[in-house]
Design goal:
Blueprint (H helix, E strand, L loop, with lengths): L2 H5 L3 H24 L6 H21 L3 H11 L1
């Protein structure tokens, strides 16, 4: 999955994609714990895809946590 694929999605589609990725991450953790995981690099890919979806969803919602954090630090 690329960021270009995600940018064209609506918020509802991003939320659905996030749920799908979280479910896959859960299944991968079970496979790892039981010793059945063959493609160990997929764990890293899924984790990064989740971060991409969360980042784009946050941008589309209009809030950026990094901007809010920098404003709170400078105001202190």
């Amino acid at each position: 999955m690329t960021a270009g694929d995600l940018k064209g999605m609506s918020l509802d589609q991003l939320d659905d994609q996030l749920a799908k990725l979280k479910k896959e991450q859960f299944n991968l953790r079970f496979q790892k714990a039981s010793g059945q995981l063959e493609n160990t690099s997929r764990v890293r890919q899924v984790r990064r895809d989740i971060a991409r979806v969360l980042t784009l969803a946050g941008q589309k919602r209009g809030g950026s946590s990094s901007k809010a954090a920098s404003k709170s630090k400078s105001g202190a």
